[in-house]
Amino acid sequence: MKTLVWFARILGLAAIAWGIFMTSHLGDAFGVYSLPRGIKSPILAMELAANRCDVEQILMAKEGKCEQYCPAKADEMDRQQRFDFIFIALYLTYFLALALLTAQRLGAAGWVLAVVILAGAAAGAYFDVRENQQILSAVDTVAHTPRPATVECATSPLAAIREDAYRKWTLVAVTIAFAIPLFAFWNTPSLALTLLRLLICAVAAATAITGGLAALTGEDARIEFVSKGIALTLLGSTIFWWTVNLWQGGTLHALDQIAGWPLFRQLANFPPSGEAMLRRIRERGRNL
């Protein structure tokens, strides 16, 4: 059990760190400008692109550094999709850890849930890979194949980027719902941990419901909510894994353990007493 918890800790932290690394470069290349249908993130806007018009709007901003086609945006979009293959591997392995923890803690029902979690995560990752490949193709097409002036961009459909993106987000959102029992039935004596795991369950449930509604209605705003809900669930669950053993004995027990950490022991003894300072001076004098 402890090995799997450590596995989940490292994978969750790695996925968060990699996601931060990916998004940290977006501002330099894209800046702030209008994206299709009011979407805030250029990456999500590209995932939900319906035609060449959308792709051109993302890569050819009227404000910022580029007045027309912006090679820097195309290069960064290409780089982001290649980085995303690593992120896919990280979150897929994280779902594996969740599935194994679910199976270990919830018995026979847990094994059923574990199979569903693995199947849903694998299917979501499959559509994520397809989506990335299609975005790479779309960016390359816009960059190297000029659109004839007689052809309207709105009538130039791309490969099924949007459809695969909806499948991916919906599958991942619904898959998270099957991991809710893992947190719902985890015994946590600490009030702080109890509130955290209940918050994880609430966010995961809201994300799954919104993902299902997005699949039915095709509303991009719901997909935006789903993307944020998944990120919050990942963050909350990672915090849970890093604190569950520490707080398992209750808040006072956790504070006692924290007080025993080397850093806090050093702080407790700072500044040193006069006698301790004299002893250090004598030791340094002997060493000289």
Topology:
Blueprint: H1 2-23, H2 26-30, H3 42-47, H4 52-59, H5 71-144, H6 161-177, H7 180-184, H8 191-217, H9 220-247, H10 251-259, H11 262-268, H12 274-287
Straight-line distance between termini: 52 Å
- Radius of gyration, in Å, reads 25 Å
Strand content: under 5%
Would you count the extended β strands for me? 0
Category from helices, strands and their pairing: mainly alpha
Number of domains: 2
Explain the overall architecture.
The protein has 288 residues and is mostly helical. The protein has two domains: 244 residues, no CATH class; 39 residues, no CATH class. Helices cover 77% and strands 0% of the residues. Helix 1 crosses helix 5, helix 6 packs parallel to helix 9 and helix 8 runs antiparallel to helix 9. The longest helix has 74 residues. The mean pLDDT is 83.
Task: Output the keywords.
288 residues; mainly alpha; globular
Short account of what is shown:
With 288 residues, this protein is mostly helical. It contains twelve helices and no strands.
